[in-house]
């Protein structure tokens, strides 16, 4: 079961500390209020992604790409197109892994870890992760982004992630990059591109 891809999929980035400026309490309050208001108006998101995984034992980062489709409140499809073709679909408390014409169904309602991951997946994409009490959040201004550095509190999450960083476009308030820091040396970076908001997505897209 492509658990590594699932974990990568779950977290939609941590850059250099240099040239970063912490947001004031007033700025944080205003930002969170604006993001909450923005999220309330989002019914769907879709676009393309480029994923880069850096591991200490690899000479070159592993790269893959594809597209994602999200429909509020909990339907999400992550489609890998290169270098391999397969997809991960979360819908109705179930995970479907589709590959080479075969579909594997996994019930997540009885699996605490998968259930938690499924919640975090959608929250990373639509920005609701910022209001998740399972994380301590620190905001910084970094170049053209506002970065939200999320430190997990839950032991189950700490087991596979040291830090999650969301790169937020200050103009659109959309998450455009996600970085999963597994440790000081290993990370996965996901760049979301060509993001389209509130286009009609038919429910048939989320049928396995």
Describe this structure in words.
- The protein has one domain (22-206): outer membrane lipoprotein receptor (LolB), chain A (Clam).
- 21% of the residues lie in helices and 43% in strands.
- The chain contains four helices and twelve strands.
- It has a twelve-stranded antiparallel β-sheet.
What's the short version?
This protein has 208 residues and is of the alpha+beta class. The protein contains four helices and twelve strands. Strands 1-8-9-10-11-12-2-3-4-5-6-7 form a twelve-stranded antiparallel β-sheet.
Q: Tell me the total number of β-strands.
A: 12
CATH architecture: Clam
Main sheet specs: 12 strands, antiparallel
Structural class: alpha+beta
Secondary structure tally, helices: 4
Helical percentage = 10-25%
- In terms of DSSP E residues, the strand content is 35-45%
Briefly note the CATH topology name: outer membrane lipoprotein receptor (LolB), chain A
Low-confidence stretches: 11-19
Overall number of domains: 1
Distance between the termini: 16 Å
The overall pLDDT average reads: 83
